[in-house]
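Issue 218. Parser rejects a valid record. Input:
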Amino acid sequence: MNCQIFAFALSLLIAYLLTPWVRKSAIKLNIMVHPGGRRVHTRPMPLWGGIAIYAGFAVSALLLMHFTAQKPACNLPIIGVVVAGALLVTVGLVDDMKELSAKAQAGMIILSALLLMTFGVRIQFLTNPFGGNMILLPPVISWILTLSWIFAVTKTIDFMDGLDGLAAGIGAIASGVLAIMAYYSNQPHVALMAAALCGACIGFLRFNFNPAKIFMGTGGSQFIGFALGAISVIGAFKVAAAMAIALPILVFGVPIFDAAFVIFKRLSNGQPLYIADKSHLHHRLMQKGLSHKQAVYVIWGISILLGIAALAIFSYIKRGG
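Output the parser choked on:
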């Protein structure tokens, strides 16, 4: 546990110290997002905060992975998340400058996920909910399921990046829950990654909470989702018996159900899925009269409750209940 705590603290410190420098650089290079449309901020804001989040995670995870590896192969998924994540963050930085098309963004998420899978990060087994035994998946099914899951989690977290501190807070809560689950499942390398991501999100949150001084941008929100998806594949899917799929869905409950609602509404109204609107949960809460901070607190609170529920179920299963 000491190693995971150190990873959390180191990534938090790196993100905290690096964010002001990133902010100054973004302002100098005019990497800014302006008010208007579905955006709720009222003044131009610098982007590229995802650099600090990624750097905190990557440096912490790479420096400490040798202390948690039960065998050399355990380091491979960590390296995979760092390498594939670097590709995704880089494309996100370009998107912040040139606003890539929805198809281009989706293509890069898919490419990053495929790259990640070459490092052995795949859903290789599913638990039989009736017998409890593990079912080995054919390679093609394994790749399709993994790609679909990582793409879905990446996009759902990206969708939640609509209010100051919202995505960073959800990322911190979800990764914190995954860190606890992984640690008590004897997967210290998975707990290390989750702890590092949690620390990086919190370190950045100091400058991103309302009133924000910087936004994480596409690279930040997509990297958080990408890393969460990868961590859940490496760890949580393998430890929860008959609830192996339900637990990660519960941990990511708010962004997943928000995305499902938005997709259903857009399809019902005949809208293209890639056209942004104000139908997300945080927009609807503000339309009901909640302030910016109140809407964030409500969604954080729901996320915490779902995380506690996931941990309670996880603990029950681990005890053989």
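Fixed in the parser; the record now loads. The longest helix spans residues 2-28.
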